[in-house]
Amino acid sequence: MAEEAQGAEFSPIENKVMESLEDVIDPELGIDMVNLGLIYDINVDDAGKCLVTMTLTTMGCPLGNLLHDQITQAVESVEGIDACDINLVWEPAWSMDRMSRFAKVALGIHG
C-alpha cells in the first residue's frame, strides 16, 4: 500500500510534516532524514494520524530508537497531527542514490 502512494503528491499537511522532518538530523552523518532520502512516504488521514514510511541507512543502526523518538516528536509538533506511526521498511533498500544533491555536497560525495 505504501509503495502505491510513493510518488503521489503530498497534501498541505503532509508537506508540513516533511518540512518538520528536515529538523531530524542523523547524528552520525549530520544531515537530516529528508535529504538523506530515508523518508519514503508520508500519509495523514482525516483523523490527524500520520504514517511515516521510512528506512535507515543500515539494518543494525544503533540510533534507530533515538531517531524513532525524534521523528515522532517532529511529526506530532505539526498542527493537526494527533498521532504518529512509523512504518520501518527495508525494501526498497536505501542507497546513496536516494540522497539529495545538498546531502551529497555536504558529505563530499561527487558524481
UniProtKB/TrEMBL annotation:
Q: Which residues form a coiled coil?
A: none
Stored InterPro entries: Fe-S_Maturation_MIP18 (IPR052339), FSCA_dom_sf (IPR034904), MIP18-like (IPR002744)
**Is-annotated flag, keyword Protein transport?**
no
MIP18 family-like domain residues are: 15-86
Kindly list the GO molecular function terms attached to this UniProt entry.
Answer: methyltransferase activity
The residues the entry assigns to the signal sequence are: none
Give the record's GO biological process terms: methylation
Q: Which SUPFAM superfamilies match?
A: Fe-S cluster assembly (FSCA) domain-like (SSF117916)
Assigned keywords, A-Z: Methyltransferase, Transferase
Record's protein name: DNA methyltransferase
> Which organism's genome codes for this protein?
Secundilactobacillus paracollinoides
